[in-house]
Amino acid sequence: MKVLITGGSGFIASWVRRELLARGHGVLVMDHQDRRQQLADGEEFFLGDVRDTTAVTEAAAHVDGIIHLAAVLGTQETISNPRPSAETNILGSLNVFEAAAQYSLPTVYAGVGNHAFRLIGTGCYTITKSAAEDLARMYNLYRDGGQITIVRPVNAYGPGQSVAAPYGTSKVRKIMPALSCRALTGAPIEVYGDGTQVSDCVYVEDVAKAFAAALEHTVEHGPTERPVEVGPLESRTVNDIARLVAEYAAQLTGREPVAITHLPMRPGEVPNAIVSSDTDTLKQIGMTAADFVPLEDGVHRTVDYYATTWLPDYLAA
């Protein structure tokens, strides 16, 4: 099977690509930035933007299935500038779903783990991604060719995730790079809010396996009855995660664990929030969270990555 991956140069996409290749599938990487030099054997590149109806339709004409990952990310970032996320996450998804229906292509759409927050007030990222879920359900119910499975990972983390300022160039701050880079450089870890909120994290390799399995299920059996929620069996607080990162970074650097400081929550973040998964939904695609990489192991792998790949260049700059 040849699979189109939108947003194919992104963090999660890079792991999904490896997983699909390992399963014997071909990959067509679609991205709005030319990254064809990063292709592996078995991959092809299609330069295009999901906001471009013609480009999406042309790419879809050459594949047997789609994993739709392209999105504008960010919580507070999308509040201050909501239009790009609306254009990409809603209209771009509409283009993907329309092309998939035109060619009767099984499709997997990446939802969000905090989808329920749209009912209590949150950022444009969650609002727009959840709106696209509604469109997916509409296609499945009422459009010939609608075969869309929704996969909702919680916070995916692991090697390769981009680093935001002041330690990198990414415009969006993600929890594990932010914690790891501060801990490795001896700076206090910054946690927004009191840290008692639950924001479950799942190792990106397990997320990639879920996307690949969901697509294979959709090919064989059609869309799952419920969205597939990808997360750990056991929930942990943000403070728990911060302590794990601080302690392991201390082992690597030979310093005492850095302090954990608390900052006011940012716009779009919900005090005392619980972002977790109904892991029973994984059974629909033949998976169980019991097989996922434990948080401690995942943190070690991730901090090791930043210590060996990011830290030397940062210190030399």
Describe the structure.
- The structure is a single chain.
- With 317 residues, the chain is α/β, with parallel strands linked by helices.
- The chain has a domain at 2-157 and 203-232 and 277-292: Rossmann fold (3-Layer(aba) Sandwich).
- It is globular and about 60 Å long.
- The mean pLDDT is 94.
- A 7-stranded parallel beta sheet has the order 3-2-1-4-5-6-11, sandwiched between helices. The chain has a two-stranded parallel ribbon with strand order 7-10. A two-stranded parallel sheet has the order 8-12.
- The protein has 9 helices and 13 strands.
Parts with pLDDT < 50 across at least 5 consecutive residues? none
Main beta sheet strand tally, sense and closure: 7 strands, parallel
Could you give the distance between the termini?
44 Å
Q: At CATH's second level, what is the architecture of the domain at 2-157 and 203-232 and 277-292?
A: 3-Layer(aba) Sandwich
User: What general form does the structure show?
Assistant: globular
Structural class: alpha/beta
Strand content: 15-25%
Helix content: 40-55%
Strand order of the largest sheet: 3-2-1-4-5-6-11
Cα radius of gyration in angstroms: 19 Å
What is the H-and-E element order?
Answer: EHEEHEHHEHEEHEEEHEHEEH
- The tally of strands reads 13
Tally of alpha and pi helices: 9
CATH superfamily of the domain at 2-157 and 203-232 and 277-292, by name, is NAD(P)-binding Rossmann-like Domain
